[in-house]
Amino acid sequence: MAVEGGPAVLVEGLTKRYGGTLALDGVGLEAPRGGVTAVLGPNGAGKTSTVEICEGFRRADGGRVRVLGLDPVADGAELRARMGVMLQDGGIYPSARPRELLRTVAHCYAKPQDPDELIDLLGLGRVARNPYRRLSGGEKQRLALALALVGRPSVAFLDEPTAGLDPQARRATWDVIANLRTAGVSVLLTTHYLEEAERLADHVVIIDHGRVLTAGTPAELTSGREGRLSFHAREGLDVDDLVGRLPAGTTAAEWAPGQYLVTGAGGTVGPDTLAQVTAWCAEHDVLAEDIAVGRRTLEDVFLDLTGRELRP
Amino acid sequence: MSLDLSPAPGAAPPVRRVLAYAGLELRQQLRNGEQLLLTLVIPVGALVLFATVPVLRHGADRVDALTPGIMALAVMSTAFTGQAIATGFERRYGALKRMGATPLGRGGLLAGKTLAVLAVELLQLAVICGVAAGLGWRPRGDVAVVVLLLVLGTATFSGFGLLLAGTLRAEATLATANLVYVVLLVVGGIVLPLRTFPHGLATALRALPVNALAEGLRAVLETGAGFPFTDVLVLAAWAAAGLLLASRTFRWE
User: Fold this and answer.
1) Could you say which residues from 35 to 94 on chain A have a Cβ atom under 8 Å away from some Cβ of chain B?
2) Could you list the residue range(s) of the whole structural domain that residue B58 is in?
3) Can you give the pTM of this predicted structure?
4) Beta strands in chain A (DSSP E)
5) Is B7 inside any structural domain?
6) Interface pTM, i.e. ipTM
7) Residue B116, pLDDT above cutoff 60
């Protein structure tokens, strides 16, 4: 049992089977101490299974998990005193009120956060005495986050912390997560929002079909390799014809209806590629909108790796 | 933002955790109207009705025969029916999982639930005994034996309540728990002492936990008997079976 030193979360070769389905197929990841790690992937990728095994809710069929050096099952009591958990679907009595819930959970910890201050921080003051069932989706999400933080944890597991939030509430939640990082809390969050991972995470783990596809800092994942050019235009352009006009090794694809991505060969998209794309569009009477040349985004990385769009 | 989010982890002492959770449970139960109907209105209503309306037996000792049965009904309604329904829905909501992620843990969660059940039972018994006293009830017997019977009954009904809630879906638990309640209310020796039943049937029914509890309480409180061995043994066997099965089969989600 080691609470000091080592990564916040260490997962090695995790496998989990539900009936005939292999949900986790050798997941391995490492979440550094005091940083934000985002596990990114579409629904059904294995994000929640991985997190729930780390939290001690589920047992893996194979592999090894250490959270703060603790075994989530064998050292469960030790770990529960040190971790905060935000569940994806509430887990709250419909008749319970936010303030009474926070107070009850606060009483389970030695040095808890003041429930009223958390209520203010997360903007729940107006509904603190309302039954849970009358809260909006966003208010329920924020209460779930408050419940994860009330015990002043060393490590926080946040499962889809901003799913279903409006943009303003999402930004407020991002601020809280950024402040957790500043305060030295290790955060492991799951998300299917690329923007969220890009903005918050020190470390991103992309997962699909129960496997880790790649991992690294957002800069590592998006830097270097290829430049890209994106634009919007009418659907169904003949991208093969377009590629024929471009420097050898360049590829082009319509990755979603009307959304085109041109990827340069072995370096960056050069001025000639940009000129040829616009010339080709002019010849075909196509108005290319939102033309942008830039570095790869996490979205590109994800598309390259999974060949499919990241949908909730 | 000025709130200090830096880590300061650590669990509160177990007693504080369990008491906090028991308080939450108790408040949820007292807020629930249907639960209150089950735990207070029906038992007290049955007591007043059958003690004052001469439908069953004659004589001043009617309330003496009736009150122990109503006490057994109260224990069953809280420890079995109420607990099964509440726990079934808590599983559905994931509330057990939510609390299971805190230092409360599963043991603390069960301890808190048990405390809340005992608190509701105390409230029920206080009201029932008060109303019965007003109707002329004169209990006899040894209080310690009464407490033993009530504790065994609570353990039995809790075990089977959690067995039901831990294995069936929430709606199925709701339906089954209510059905069992109604059937035992009618065929059990709650309103009618078993001695008014045909002998063979009475013997068979006495093996049911609610009847063992009711008859045990009746033996002590009504007739002042010493120690109802048979009923205590029957209840102890049911309690062991119920708690064992519940602990083997209970699923938290």
Assistant:
1) 55, 57, 76-77, 80-83, 85, 87, 89-94
2) 14-249
3) 0.81
4) 9-18, 21-31, 36-40, 62-67, 83-86, 155-159, 186-191, 203-208, 211-216, 227-232, 251-256, 259-263, 289-295
5) no
6) 0.83
7) yes
